[in-house]
Amino acid sequence: KNILKKSKTGKAYFLCYYTSLFYPLIAACNELNIDTIDVQHGGMGSGHWSYDQWVSVPVGGYLLIPRYFWSWDKNSANLINRWALSSQFHEAINMGTPWVDDYLHLTRYNPAQKNYILFNMADVTIENYIIETIRHFRNKKRWVLRMHPRMINKRHILENQIMENGIADFVSIEDSTQILLRDSLRFCSAFISVSSGSIIEA
User: 119: helix, coil or strand?
Assistant: First the structure.
């Protein structure tokens, strides 16, 4: 609290608030009437344990939960407000994704290829139904496989799977540590994801 007071902090933004690292800071800010804002970081559907179905919400709100929720869209804001507005403290606001809009206007990225199918991977390997779909279209469709940045060091596993299934001529692996997802989304003709908040960005 002393640090917050001395720094004259007016707002505190959080990305994924539900971690033990943030709870003390959120509590301190709320006690000092410093605005606490959780910025949406992915998709949130019904049943999400951090954003939905809170019951018996205190009128003064929860000390360990941010006061405001920066939501990407109306549906996400409504999900939170179903319980948040029963208090006189919490509220979700549909603020959109202005960083995406600005990026689309400012970017000068020129990809090596366009009109490809982008598959945003959730695992190190691709599912059998994706392999069969790639085989079905053969050279009629170009596929770009985007591995999660945390999995890029296991690229050789995916490369082996591609070779073993004979689809190397129809796919390429994208380095997610070098190419921004927004660039990939901008120039693909279709986007497939098993479980990712990037679906909303798309």
Answer: strand
